[in-house]
Design a protein that fits this description.
127 residues, alpha+beta, Nuclear Transport Factor 2, Chain: A, six-stranded mixed beta sheet, 6 strands
């Protein structure tokens, strides 16, 4: 798969998450896609669990931005990212991580594995 197509999928993933747009986010995933976010937590089944995931995000966060560096492989990418979030109660936190994207043969995201310390960020936000 061309790197431009992979870069587009990654951009859509992060842009739609930041916009809290579950519909746009789901369109780039395979029907049986899974997310390990963070790795070590039970996997989330994208199409089954996305409504609850976005409900939590939209109830808690006012703003989420990410900056990333992408490293490409044949059908995937590793993305080093920095995420800045602001809660609805105006608490700020920054977190860094790496997400591994696996793309299937029809150009949909099959699996995302994210390595980051979610607990540390939540502690900062709940203060």
């Amino acid at each position: 798969m061309p790197t431009e197509e992979i870069a587009s999928l990654v951009a859509i993933y992060f842009d739609n998450m930041a916009a809290m747009n579950a519909k746009g986010w789901l369109e780039i995933f395979a029907e049986d896609a899974v997310i390990h976010d963070p790795v070590g937590d039970p996997p989330r089944f994208v199409h089954k669990d996305s409504q609850q995931f976005f409900k939590i995000l939209s109830n808690f966060l006012k703003k989420m931005e990410s900056k990333d560096d992408i490293f490409f492989v044949k059908n995937g990418a590793a993305v080093k990212w920095t995420m800045q979030v602001i809660t609805k109660s105006d608490r700020h936190a920054t977190s860094e991580g790496i997400s591994i994207f696996e793309i299937n043969d029809v150009g949909k995201i099959q699996k995302v594995s994210s390595y980051w310390d979610e607990a540390a960020m939540m502690t900062k936000l709940k203060g």
